[in-house]
Amino acid sequence: MKDVLMILDLRSHAHGMLPVFALFALGFASPLVSAQTLRYQPDPGTKFAYRFEISVDGGSETTHYKGITKYEVESRNKDQIQLTYRGGLSESKSYKNVDRGRRGPFGFRSFPPSIPSPFSRPAFAGKTQTTNQITLSSRGEVIKLVRDSQLPFLLGNVSLIPFEPLPETEEREWQFDSGIAVTQKDRQDRFGPGGFGPGGFGPGGIDPFGRRTDNDTTRSAVEKTSFQLQRQQDDLLVFKKDYELKMPETEDGVAYEMSGSGTWSFDKSVNMPAGIDFKYKLIVKSKNSTTTLPISMKYERLSQQEIDAIEAEAKRVAEERAMAAAKAKAEAEAPLTEAQKADALASLASNDAARQIQTLGELAKKNLSDPDPQIVAAMRPLVDSDDDKLRKAAHSAMLRWDAEYKRIASLKSAYDRSGVVDDTKREVNLLTTLYVGQIVQVNEHGPFWKPATIEEILTDGQVRVELRGGGNRKITVARRKIQLAPEDLPQPNKPAATAAATLATQSRTWSDASGRFKVDAILLRVEGASVVLKRADNREVTVPIVSLSEADKDFLRELQQQRAAVKNPFEP
């Protein structure tokens, strides 16, 4: 179902690109019974609401759109009205008894597999609660639409659906007949601004089939809508409506047809639509396959009493939620009483996992400015529990009670993902000790650093790492492209520190990278990228580390690691 749903979604702007607008009068034997020209002329400040029910029969599944749309008239003059729309329709699905083998990864499939699936289409605003500003002419042409409310299946903007085109004079019958050259991007009418997709056809736009396009593209279609007065009861006029849209086959071999009939009613007492009861048939032709989707649409204008009841209920629910939120906030910020603290400590110290989990769940609801350190100390051992549920409950509670634990947890979370992490500026050089399994950050492209795990330390100075985040992608980088992770990031694979078996004060034989030159000397100090050695004749020489043999470099790395592991308590 979703495959074609996505395709048709992209066509829902089709009606918004009409460069030609024409009304043709048919059979004007007599004027409207009321002898008054129909116009959209609601009073400023008036509120209207419509209850929608739309169903799309996809064969194995039916997609439903239901909800209430609301309008408030901001201003009105002779030729224009300005409306604020609020609302949206919720989507649901019902399934029929079909062969389970036809169910695909995205639900039941009732569409030909040859129809492509442009998943790049963004979500439809008409399926969410949203708002937009509408400026209409008194005859129903959309002069301006700020933000869209598009629905799938060529249904157009839900905020504009009620407003049908009205005749120029008081006619019983009229027809909206348009030949469409799909090249304009700025025309706005019932189906909204632009073309088939957000921004219309053109540079940076999206075409009906989900592909980005950098050039204007032309499509053609024919759309016809006709109205005929059926009956009038007081101020309510009921018209028979017929609709037809034909879009010829495109270069992809896909053609669309949409037709339907039903009734549309207009309430002259408020000069706004009263409702519709309409059935469409959407036909998608793709090469040798044809898919037919029956669509039913109903909406009705709610009475003022119904609107008042809906608003009153919404206000009641909002007040209840606000009261519940205020109560929860007060309870979360209230410190533990002595009795509650004693009970919590006893529970956390027990070996009853179920009792501990319950207590941790209650503690996780607290939001204290000054958490009790005794409670924190009692919870801390439980984050290392072998019981998965207990460990997770302790973790959740510690996030609320221990700021330092939360900071470290946030750091761990950042390095467990594949995203960008903060630059630590902890540079890695030839003397930096690295080990397999160490978590570091690497610079692969641009100025960004990403978390990685060291896989192998190569002899040519390169390092093989695996980028973290579950992608299993491995790259080889130079040491200068690596930085150490933050000091307080836990390193589960860090090797245990060895005893300082090698003393820097002992004389040893040093050699250069070629092995041709050697000297017996004592290491005095490391200065930047060089070492200062004291030879047997007491002369000091400065040698670049890069010129030393790999054995000497290993010695320096080991010495640095030993010094980092053992701190001299007598040195400042």
Tell me the layout of helices and strands.
Layout: H1 2-10, E1 23-25, E2 47-57, E3 61-76, E4 80-87, E5 90-95, E6 103-104, E7 107-108, E8 130-137, E9 142-146, E10 150-151, E11 156-157, E12 173-182, E13 188-189, E14 192-193, E15 205-206, E16 212-213, E17 219-233, E18 236-247, E19 254-267, E20 272-286, E21 289-301, H2 304-333, H3 338-349, H4 353-363, H5 373-379, H6 388-401, H7 403-416, E22 439-442, E23 450-457, E24 462-467, E25 474-478, E26 482-484, E27 508-511, E28 518-527, E29 530-535, E30 540-544, H8 550-565
Antiparallel strand pairs: 1-12, 2-3, 2-21, 3-4, 3-5, 4-8, 6-7, 8-9, 10-11, 12-17, 13-14, 15-16, 17-18, 18-19, 19-20, 20-21, 22-23, 22-26, 23-24, 24-25, 27-28, 28-29, 29-30
Helix pairs in contact: 3-4, 3-5, 4-6, 6-7
What attributes does this structure have?
572 residues; alpha+beta; 13-stranded antiparallel sheet; 5-stranded antiparallel sheet; 30 strands; disordered N terminus
